[in-house]
């Protein structure tokens, strides 16, 4: 029996396009990196919250300069101020100190642990690039999952790249990358959460995807409490979907585990 040419050619074409699309995605991300780096080079000032990003991540003695009584009623030199925002010798990878500093502030510690990790490799040295490079990495992560969401929702293979391009070159992306705070990490985790929910609705529920959804909820909550607002509505929508499709077992498992993820955020950082 003669072979059907379509059965021979199409798998090769799909394989070829599979490689090409990831090449295109990497190219888009690299172009965004170049554009963001160009913008970041001109960063000339810091918002006070950005200073606190470094202080809460790296200060070994206090969560606020104003809380260090030894600095009251006197001039604080630049070198003394630098000690607050940099990791000093012997103080690297002190995650308990980062946790303590943030227990006196209002945000969970995950982002600050990430900043402290980077800074620990460069003791006694301050650079805006420690925070900016982290944001660029989180941007790449967000781009990857925006693209994966697009593949689930957009039929045209060429238009699937459009959301990545629109977001990655948008003013909001520029602001989020250049602002040395936890919002780029929050964006990446939000995209991971949305991708997992959409993927389960489109392709079916699996134990692995459910587990990663709960992990995304926990990590989001440990980054910024705003994440829990998104997760609430995402889980609620998904629960309605499960109930409507009579997936009763998954309905109860996901609901209970999602609540457990939120509870774990509380117990990890009460």
Q: What does the model show?
A:
The chain is an all-alpha fold. The chain is flat. Helices cover 71% and strands 0% of the residues. The N and C termini lie far apart (70 Å). The chain is built from 12 helices and no strands.
Give the CA-based shape.
Answer: flat
Report the oligomer.
single chain
Proportion of β residues?
under 5%
Give the termini distance in whole angstroms. 70 Å
Helix content: over 70%
Provide a count of the helices. Answer: 12
> Element order, helices and strands?
HHHHHHHHHHHH
Largest sheet: none
**Radius of gyration computed on alpha carbons:** 22 Å
Mean pLDDT: 91
Name the structural class.
Answer: mainly alpha
Which stretches are poorly predicted, pLDDT < 50 over at least 5 residues?
none
Question: How many beta-strand runs?
Answer: 0
Draw up the topology in text.
Layout: H1 5-41, H2 48-58, H3 78-85, H4 95-103, H5 110-120, H6 128-153, H7 162-168, H8 171-178, H9 183-203, H10 207-221, H11 226-244, H12 248-268
Helix pairs in contact: 1-6, 2-5, 6-7, 6-8, 6-9, 9-10, 9-11, 10-12, 11-12
């Amino acid at each position: 029996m003669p072979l059907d040419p379509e059965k021979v050619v199409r798998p090769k074409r799909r394989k070829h396009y599979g490689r090409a699309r990831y090449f295109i995605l990497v190219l888009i991300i690299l172009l965004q990196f170049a554009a963001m780096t160009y913008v970041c080079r001109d960063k000339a000032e810091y918002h006070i919250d950005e200073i606190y990003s470094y202080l809460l991540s790296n200060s070994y003695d206090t969560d606020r300069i104003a809380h260090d009584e030894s600095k009251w009623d006197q001039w604080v030199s630049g070198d003394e101020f630098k000690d607050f925002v940099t990791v000093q010798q012997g103080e690297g990878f002190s995650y308990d100190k980062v946790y303590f500093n943030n227990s006196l502030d209002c945000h969970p510690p995950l982002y600050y642990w990430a900043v402290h990790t980077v800074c620990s490799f460069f003791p006694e040295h301050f650079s805006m690039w420690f925070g900016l490079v982290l944001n660029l990495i989180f941007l790449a992560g967000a781009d990857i999952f925006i693209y994966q969401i697009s593949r689930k929702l957009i039929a045209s293979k060429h238009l699937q790249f459009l959301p990545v391009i629109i977001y990655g070159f948008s003013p909001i992306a520029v602001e989020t990358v250049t602002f040395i705070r936890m919002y780029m990490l929050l964006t990446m985790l939000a995209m991971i959460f949305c991708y997992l929910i959409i993927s389960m609705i489109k392709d079916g529920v699996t134990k692995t995807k459910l587990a990663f959804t709960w992990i995304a909820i926990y990590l989001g909550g440990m980054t910024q409490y705003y994440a829990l607002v998104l997760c609430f509505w995402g889980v609620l929508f998904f629960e309605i979907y499960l109930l409507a499709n009579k997936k009763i077992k998954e309905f109860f498992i996901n609901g209970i585990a999602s609540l457990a993820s939120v509870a774990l955020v509380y117990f990890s950082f009460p």
